[in-house]
Model the fold of this input.
Amino acid sequence: MTEMLSYDFMQRALIAAVLVGITAPAVGIYLVQRRQALMGDGIGHVALTGVGLGFVFQTSPVWMAVLVCVLGAVVMELVRSRGNNRGDIALAMLFYGGMACGKLLVSMSAQAGSGSLESYLWGSILTVSPTDLATIGVLGAVVIAVTVGLRRQFFAICQDEEFARVTGIPVRFLNLLLAVMAAVTVTVAMRVVGLLLVSALMVVPVAAAQQLTRSFAATQAAAIALGITVAVAGVAGSYQADVPSGPAIVLLAIAVFAVFSAIAAPLARRRHRAASSAGGPAGPEVCDVLLPAQAGSVPDGARHDRSDRSDPAGSPGLAQ
Done:
């Protein structure tokens, strides 16, 4: 371990892993709640166009990917909000068109090579430069500040957009902002796990945390802790075994999910027996994330309608 930390590139790799381990689950928990777990994968396809543009114009592929991803995420959110029958077809063309365009641009650039595209598709954390690390740090700080600072508002729109709109929350703006944060997260993580695997790091730690937690705040904290753990352990393990870090991180996260799933059922039965013996409810605890609007400002009819609804996300482990 001491030998590994003596190398500058490993120090940068571990710092980048920590940053990505925080940001990916911080955004992913909202995507999971909205049943948009594959949104990160779609944005990753679009990001390849940004990487190609960076190669063609000989500028930073990361910043070009940020620009293209943000535009693509806004388009995706607008298509989703319309809810028309052709939305899936439009998104499919956007995803595959972005990937094809990226490959074409990379092949046309002067920097094209056998490893130039692979490092972005599958990640190349050991080649993270000081400039890359600074970029990841700045973008990661923005994502963390937004997703944690607006946790109540994001939770509200993920649970029930109609009720959130009644309370005065700017639903359209927050939907677009969440899509932009997902796009930024993809570009932050692409150097660590790659564009093809970034969605896994946004979803799997959240899904694993849901197996054992019973409230939104606990799930978010546990998912971030798991994200950091698997990212750092994956980087360290890949260095020792001389294997790619991106696949190692994702496979480790899936292994953690499998372990948590195995122990979730016995833990749930124990909770049920304890709640039955105490005479209390055996269901999930009350949500620990309050809406930003005052309860008195919500019309009685809207409050009654909301109280009759079950959790639309239906995610195990998250309280209603």
